[in-house]
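Teaching assistant here, posting this on the class forum so everyone can see the example we discussed in section. The complex has three components, and the goal was to see what a joint structure prediction looks like when all of them are supplied at once.
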Amino acid sequence: MTELSPLARRIESLLFLSNQPVTELALAEACEVELAEAEQAIAELEADLAPGRRGLILRRVGGGLALASDPESEAAARRLLSRPRTPPLTQAQAETLAIVAYLQPVARPEIARIRGVSSESAVNSLSERGLIEEAGRSRFGAAIYRTSPLFEKVFGLDGLDALPDPSRFDPTPEDEREIRERLLAAGEQRAEA
Amino acid sequence: MTELSPLARRIESLLFLSNQPVTELALAEACEVELAEAEQAIAELEADLAPGRRGLILRRVGGGLALASDPESEAAARRLLSRPRTPPLTQAQAETLAIVAYLQPVARPEIARIRGVSSESAVNSLSERGLIEEAGRSRFGAAIYRTSPLFEKVFGLDGLDALPDPSRFDPTPEDEREIRERLLAAGEQRAEA
Amino acid sequence: MASRLDLDLDLDLDVFIGPFDLLLSIVLREEISLLEVELGEIVAMYVTKLEEEGELELEVATEFLVLVAALLELKSRLMLPGAEEDLTDMEPAEAVEELVSRMLEYRRYRDAGRALKEHFESQRGYLYRSAPLPPELRRIEVETAEQVYEPEQLAAALGDLLEPPPRPDLSHMRATVSLRRRLSVVRSVLMNKPVFDFDDQFGSEDRMTQAVTIFALLDLYKKGEAVWEQTESCGPITVRRVQSGQNGLAKTA
């Protein structure tokens, strides 16, 4: 059985105690060591806490480091802690969250404009789940939203840069042509019929 | 580097997620294994998480198992996480603290009698903030309190003799015993009112 | 990605009877002015249709709503005074472009939403700890602690406690008068005076006591211990003891 270096041990302790992801710099400062030294210990810990080795996994989320439990323990954990599984996102919530994530900061009316429907209930439930938060008001008094640190944590994202490239979702020229054609052609065909 | 057995990993996950000590039986049930099997995995984990090996330690406390951070990390944890709060004392806390400061050592029921109301929450928060501490038990099993060294520091007192003289609130100078009696008499009237 | 705009909705509007997508293309070709179309009615019909079919395929519904929203926006622009110039000249092709770009924009976020949803599923198994800090870390350290509180506060708090609380003000409360006690008072008066005048005996008591005394007399009458009479309204009341075994009759005004 291996032993961790004293610095890696200390860092593991700090991550265990912290409820939020901690940056490497903050870890170095708390341990009163140089950043490079901390990074080395973090690398040691990261190898030791790689997926499939222990009950804990070292993850880089929300711009910092955090300990998480192995997903394989999820069912047992829910039995022990009688924690219900967080409900999946509804399609409306997912669309709204995508708009906020990619366009942030974004005002509520803009979300409604893009989705074509008032998105109040989706915005409210995302707010309640702590995934988005108000980031002020627009000139016209509309609430402006951005994603929260919790969003990055529960989506396992190491910062917003880790979101998938939005161009991935660009409609293809075929999609575009199809929509355009359908908009006009459908009616014309019927008119002829 | 060693790997933990799947069951030991699962148990490590569960202890990580739980805020309370967990019994071996509860762990076995959550993992859906026999108690003996769980005990074996716990022994494996206990050896792996023995003091001085990692940042976490497996401890047996309060009839169960719990993960704790290595005490050696306390100073670093304090630098990273602890934002000690010194909010203004509430009236209940100030009264309770005054009773303990002037009459110490003083039993919890006596504090309640003097204040005319149950003082549990004030005692607990002063205790949690480290301003008062238990100094044993009375003959009847009640906790006896005194002020802590931290109390003297945050009140800038050079010893308990430096407490301001309360006699100016009272026309006749009295000794401590008489003050105690007067306090109790006033407290009983408060409790009746 | 297959586009699914098969909106089979038959409309029955004032200005138009037929399928929705036909209306859409007619509007786009400006054969019917949007101003004449009740969009609210279309939405209501669409919802009714979904209910009848018992299926609410959100994906289709959302696309429909995006379309209606775009139509609404076009319509509201038409209704705005002054904005007309922009739109009266708008070629059908331009209106189509407007709709197409709106639908494409929506589609982008719909797909991004789907990706996020999948990603969310893949991350749900990772659980994080959320526990309060151990007590020793929640406290100030003695070595680094500085004065933050005034000792005077403690002396003042103790002084407050030395002060007995003011007697509660009971002036708003009526003294209670006990029926039982009045009964024994009347009985003891009757022991000494078999006949007495009520006012002579109780006239100096307060109204509440007098009222309860009357109740006591009623009780004594019921028990056959006393009778009382009042010969004129508001006149004197004479109370008389009844000898045991003797049934008295009360004469009341």
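For the discussion questions: The interface with chain B takes residues 1-4, 6, 8-18, 22, 26-27, 29-32, 47-48, 52-56, 67, 69-70, 72-73, 76-77, 79-81 of chain A (CB under 8 Å). The two ends of chain A are 80 Å apart (CA to CA). Think about how each of these relates to the inputs above.
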